[in-house]
Each structure stands twice: as C-alpha cells, then as structure tokens.
Amino acid sequence: MTPTAKTPKALMTGVAIAALVGTTGALSTTAMVGPAEAAPQAGTDYVDLVAELSPSVVTIEVSKSAANARGSMTDEQEEFLEEFQERFGMPFPGAPGQGRGPGGEMRGSGTGFIVSADGRIVTNAHVIDGADEVTVTLEDGTELEAEIIGSDPATDIAVLDVEGDALPFVEFGDSEALQVGQNVIAMGNPFGLGNTVTTGIVSALGRDINSGPFDDFIQTDAAINRGNSGGPLFNEAGQVIGVNTAILSPTGGSVGVGFSVPSDLASEVVADLADDGVVERGWLGVRIQPVGEDVAMALGFEEGEGVMIADVTADTPAEEVGLQNGDIVLSVNGEEVETPRDLTRAIAIEKPGAEVEITYLRRGEEQSVTVTLGDRANLDA
C-alpha cells in the first residue's frame, strides 16, 4: 500500500541518481563488517576498531551488458542524465556509458559487508541490479565470484554469497537504540579507491525521502560518496546499524547528507532473502493518505492520528471485508497507526495469508474487522 503524496520529482530523481551511479562509470555500491569486541572510550580514536572491522568490508564490482545497464534505469533517472548533459555540456560523472569494458559492457563498483563466516554478503539492490557478473574483492586483494541470492528493490537490500570459510564478518546492531548526535563510522569504496573510513554523527532518524514505501532512513553527515552504496554504518561498538544507500546532493558528491537503511529493517530483509531469495509481504489493496487537518478538527483528532483510505482496489482483501473510501484506520493488531508509512509497514511485515485485525473509524463510529492478507509481491499498493 502506498501513500498518495509524492515528493517533488527533482528531489526524488536527485537522490535516486546519487545512489545509482558508481565510481567506475556505471553503478554504485557499499559494504558491511563483523562485530567489535569493545567500544572505544569517549575522546579516543577508532584505530583498533577500524583494524578489526575493515577485513569484513568488501569491494563489489559488477559488469552488465550495455542493454541491461540502460534497461535497468527508471524514466526519471534517464531524464536526469539527459538534462544534466544538456545543461552542463558533459555526461553526469559515473553515469552509464562512461565505464565500458571489453565488448562494450558496463562496469561499476560499490561496497558490501560480510555477515557470516561462510561468505554471506549484504549490499544494495541497486548495486547489483541487472548484473551479468559480480566479483567481490576482500581487503587482502583476494577476488571471489559472487552469486546473487536475492534482492529487494523496495528496501534496496541484496544478499550475495561467495565460497569461503572462516571469513571475517560483522553483526547487525539495534538501530532502534540510535539517538540523534550519536557517533557513527562509515566504511566503503568511494570512487573505486578501496576501503575508506569516514566518521560523523546521526543527523536525524526516520527520514522519508520518498524513494520507496518503506523509507525510514538514518541520516548522517559521515561522508558517503558514489561507490559507498551497500556499505556499513557502524556504531562505536562495531555493530552495523545501517546500510549506506543514498545521498542528497546537487553535485553527486558528499555534502553531508547521507542516508542509511536501519539495521532493524535490513536484518529482517537479509534473513528473508537468505531463506529462499524472496521477500514475502502482506497486501491489503488500498491507497492511503494522511488525515487532512479539516477532517481531524471535525473529528477532534490530534495531529497525526489515523490514516485515511483514499481508494479500495477491486478484488482485494480490503474489498472482501468491506473497507471503504473515507474509512480512517486507527490501528493494526492493536498497534496505533499515525502515518501512511506506519500502515504500509504494519501490513508489509506480515506474511501473505496472515490474519490481522484492523480498527477503523467510519462516520464517527469505531469498528474492527479481521482481514486475511494477500501477497504484495511486486505490487505498488
């Protein structure tokens, strides 16, 4: 299910391109690592921690045919590239078409991180999208051919696998425990330079940049550039609390506004993908929007209370149980719903076939209904 409101096209396209393009001319990626034994004391450097984590962060190189490279781009991304070239008289740095290898294939690089000793690797979905070949390079220079286990474009998370045993790895931490102002460390492969470390703080939490229905980004001022996509964002205990995914930038380079997928969401997706390569999500079949100020005042609601159903799709679970346009959803399984994003997630975390109780308001009367969810699959609502 998706909110009806959209961000300005220019903002959404800028973010998408910053996440997509990579250092060698085509794509962009990032990586992640294993747990640290102890956090540094306040006021100290991160020398020991970085030395421990670095072996778990890998460089990801991908190649794809020129047709696949162009075919994987959205209309908005193609339009952005064309407008950039017209305005500045040069191609966008790192755009598809810049990094050609033998036979005209497109090449790009990004980052990933190892999460198991037997070679399970996490990166961004956009890093490996459409790839014909994926190569992982370890810190010691060892190159390994990677298999794509699965990817989830909705959260921009992908899982790879390489042959190995006793590989260094990192663990996910608790992103729910993050606080604004907390120190964080980013590692990745900016501009194809190889493992690079930057530090900063958590600038904001719960950012929605309208890149997808599950936006809940950690914002950080740690430098993240093209090629950092898919890399880990660590806390001071050496735990991965985010997967670096996108930047907001007028230039394509870091201006201190980077976004990471929270580890609590990423870890769930990784576990689902590792199981069978597919993420299963429940589906209700409605379009939703925030409760308007005038409606909220008329109902005596506090600001941000409830989500209005704007449209019910035919032949869906929502229609089957009688939900109607104008109904205001108050909770799912007893958990309050305050924003369209809350409702989208509450439904999506359930498996197809699950039964959920939805409490809603219709003409001032509170009602409840039990819905058997459908399969969201690749649907947008």
TrEMBL record:
Task: Name the coiled-coil region(s).
Answer: none
Q: Which GO terms describe its molecular function?
A: serine-type endopeptidase activity
Q: Which residues form the signal peptide?
A: 1-18
In terms of superkingdom, the source organism counts as: Bacteria
Q: Which UniProt keywords apply?
A: Hydrolase, Protease, Signal
Q: Which PROSITE patterns match?
A: PDZ
CDD domains the record matches:
cpPDZ1_DegP-like
Lineage per the UniProt record: Bacteria, Pseudomonadati, Pseudomonadota, Alphaproteobacteria, Rhodobacterales
In the record, biological process GO terms are:
proteolysis
Gene3D superfamilies, per the entry: 2.30.42.10, 2.40.10.120
What's this protein's name?
Serine protease Do
Which parts of the sequence belong to the PDZ domain?
Answer: 285-364
